[in-house]
Amino acid sequence: MSSTLIVNARLVNEGREFDADLRIEDGLIAKIGTGLGARSGERVVDAAGRRLLPGMIDDQVHFREPGMEHKADIATESAAAVAGGLTSFMDMPNTSPPTLGPDALEDKYARAQGRAWGNFGFYLGASNDNLEAIRRLDPLSAPGVKVFMGASTGNMLVDDPEVLDNIFRDVPTPIITHCEDTPMIDAELARYRAKYGDDIPAACHPDIRSREACMKSTQLALSLARRHGTRLHVLHISTADELALFEAGPLIRADGTRKQITAETCIHFLRFDRADYASLGHLIKCNPAIKDASDREALIRAVADDVIDVLATDHAPHLLEEKARAYTGAPSGLPLVQYALVAALELVYEGRLTTSQVVQKFAHAPAQLFDVAGRGYLREGYAADLVLIDDTPFTVRREDVLSKCGWSPFEGRTFHSRIAATWVNGVLAWDGEQLVGSPNGQRLMFDR
Ligand code: DOR
Description:
Elements: E1 4-13, E2 16-25, E3 28-33, E4 43-46, E5 51-54, E6 56-61, H1 74-83, E7 86-91, H2 102-112, E8 119-122, E9 124-125, H3 131-135, E10 145-148, H4 161-170, E11 175-178, H5 182-196, H6 205-208, H7 211-228, E12 232-234, H8 240-243, E13 261-266, H9 267-271, H10 277-280, H11 293-304, E14 310-312, H12 320-323, H13 340-349, H14 355-370, E15 386-390, E16 394-395, E17 414-415, E18 418-424, E19 427-430
Parallel strand pairs: 1-4, 1-5, 6-7, 7-8, 9-10, 10-11, 11-12, 12-13, 13-14
Antiparallel strand pairs: 1-2, 2-3, 5-15, 15-18, 16-17, 18-19
Helix pairs in contact: 4-7
Residues 62, 94, 152-154, 178, 286-287, 316, 331-333 line the site of (4S)-2,6-dioxohexahydropyrimidine-4-carboxylic acid.
């Protein structure tokens, strides 16, 4: 494989921003330094002072394959992700069939081979009756086990208390949870249905899928994890209330130990709030629900203050015609991978976060949390998964959306940074305008 030299870059890595050159060789970061001279035959890219980051690792996507390829598939969504600077993804088990055992898991890895533009990992899902499959899971075969402690797309609710207790006791990998209390949500939904029928206003979504429902379920997950010493990662925190439940401070503590229990929020909770239902309606209907401006503010602060450990997307595409249905029939979830990093960098532009914090939450932290081997950092010997940021504003247009569903909740919004280039395993995959080459993603490996 030929080598590439990126010169005059502003590297952002492990809490530092510094000027350097970076050489890619055989898919890896071969050298980071200043004044690296180009070798004969070497491709040279002048970064002209622009920011160069490790590719983001999105630990929460729904790429819909197998079974819902009319909405999305691994090829289309990973292409959108790479265009957005996300070079690795971890995909959720609520597919059809759901990923409940080793065969379904390996089927997904086989599907991704040669078709995924980014590096890929697939979660095993939990159900009320696959405890044996969870116990027997090879920890090198999946980033973790996903437990829906609240029902959402795909009907994978685990609500048997004994099963939950056993899963938390016996799981051989980190557990990741969707925390919302389904009985509370069902009761609220019945109340709103009695008033409105199926045509409930979209703005009621955060009252139906309430903050109390989030709190109750998150508390249950934390108590189970504490009882059994489980490594627990609570996905998509959407309320200020839940933040008090989590330990503030770096994911890897000063003494080198790692937090046992970690929290994640998603880009839509930092960029939208209740006021946006008026213009976007079901387009921003998702589970958990986007809540109040005060929650959004608290969540941004919690990212900055290290209460939230990980930033992800929960990319969950649905078709516009599905979203156009009445409330009770409109599916939850929104496509996010293509514009998630630029949306996060908008918080840097606004002075709310630093680029280092975005890199920590969106690249280093998922690698630390899931023991991802050889990725997530700008380090010599690590995979050359890289993203170059150009500070030229652009406005999101529907015709530029690469996700199969063909729309974005950010349409019409202007971002102040764009993705100038993305390399996956040392190969240019996005040149700032279009995808180039062919899918080059690899199976994620775990050092555990
Ligand atoms: O909004 C959501 N959509 N939340 C989930 O938990 C699932 C996801 C989906 O798969 O559509």
